Amino acid sequence: MQKRFAFIMPCVVVMLLLIFSCPCRAQNDLVLYLHGGEILDDTEPEKSTDSVWDIRNKGVWMTNPFLFDGIITGDIDVYLWLKGEDKPYPWTLFRIPKVSLHDISPDGSKSEIGHARKLVTFLQENISEISFTIKTDEYELSKGHTLSLEVNSLFSTELLYGSFAHKSRVSIPYGTQGDIELFSSSTQKSIPPNGNATFSIRAQNMGSLPDTVKLSHDYVGTQWDVSLDTVSVTVPPGDVVYVTLSVIPVNVSVNDFIEITITGQGETDAGSIQVITRIREAIYGVDIKPPLGKTGAPGDKVAYNFTVINTGEVSETYTFSYSVDDTDWEVNLREEDNVFLEAGESRIVIIEVEIPSDAKNLSTNRVILDAESPHASDSASVTTQVLFEGDGDVEDWTPYLVLIIVIAIILLVIQYLAQRGFMNRVKLVCIDRLREVVPGGVAEFLITVINPLKKQKEEKNMYHLDVKGDIPQDWQAKIDRDVVPLGAKEKKDITLRVYSARDAQVDDWASLEIWASDKEKTGKTEKISVIVLIKEPSPDITIKNVTYEPDEFNTGDRVVLKADIINKGSAPAENTSIKLIVNGEEHNRVEGVAIPAKGRVSVKIPWIVNPGENKVYIKVE
User: Fold this and answer.
1) Which of 337, 370, 486, 574 is most deeply buried (CB count within 10 A of its CB)?
2) Measured between alpha carbons, how far is 537 from 515 in angstroms, rounded to an integer?
């Protein structure tokens, strides 16, 4: 019995040691692999053959100097492939390898970040991946410093590394303190040869510490004037700062373009973005806005102010001329023949018209003003009417008086017939007779039934309603009542509902007629028509519940705007961009938002309060 116990106990110990020496893997930010030449970097091994190091002689692997300040945020895992001896002896059955990670400054001084040991058992020649955990809470790694990994053991033990089969490595939870990204709401613009383009570049600090970003631009070619309004900005953590890039062409041709790379170099990170400006044909245009016509007596002078606007993108010289229907009238153009106007500039052009002394009463004459440049032209006219009191022919009003009397008699007869009941005894009114609905939607029409009679013998008329017309298959039309009792001059509203099919197509439609007649059938029936069209489902965006956190703030404070974006439409809003605009400029945005039909999303957008008044609104695209 003692012999069996003596045999079982070493087996149990060995099994426990093997269980607790199994590798443990975790997700980390930075993985560094051991390579030949004592190199430690993030290049994953691709060789088929192993590098071998007997860690009885301490092995040291080092990284290149780090380019940015960073932080090791937690425990460090080390995974090493170790190999036992061909003929293990009792004194070499157990190994206790040690790993340690050090921080080496540019002057060569070394500080230990942490170390770990592990008891490893080899029963025979075998290869195992052994994991070590170096405990650490948080460690700041400065720019220019180097990490070194040291591995050693009391007994001869081979470390395998540098091959795709045996990737000995270090896994470090690591992050830089800054994260700079550059954005632009527009990365391509087209301008005329003498125009200019401006890009609003947003420098955003995605890191946890403030960062000073130095901005620069680079492009190929000399026929452009490119400049940034500032070359250095300080960006708080989680915030943005805007800079303006100006692009002015110099001696370029249509279809020329420039591709500019803007780089933002922070203390701990860098970002870049490319923008393109293309040269296109200029847009030309001129618009003449005429004044209202005037009246005058013979011998009068009438002046007109025409407004001429250069609606193009470039400056132009315009030539003015005029023409007149009746050349006997004296016309004077009080303006130079050639006028230079900048893009968007306007000019008042005055034309004086003198009415001849022998002009007839109520006669007219039209004057046309023309403006023309090598690329655009426009014209506009104004009419002058002669009006005066004279002792000419006196118009005979007798026929008009007779006509008025006849019309009055006809109206009296119509009124009499209406009171006698020979006119319509019912009237239908529907203000909006056209509705658009999505497939499966319901169109509602509010129809007013009116009893137009002023007097009637019975207490109330009973009006019967009916719906007729063309309606597609699987559609339905329902009216909420088919009989309406009304007394004299009474009216009542009814509702017609048209239910479209769920699989209705965009080109489907329904045309319906609502008929009304009174019970006695003594008057004419009345009808009105309505139409229902199918429209494409579309989103309908509304912004609700806008709040600020904090609700009271001062210049320079970081404020978070919260809002609900509601889609009341019948189709989802895909890839929506939600922009925060402050004083007319975009300060931040949320991209790629999907809002389902009849659904909502809540967004949070931060910004920094500007000095003075801040006019804030949200734009959804």
Assistant:
1) 486
2) 32
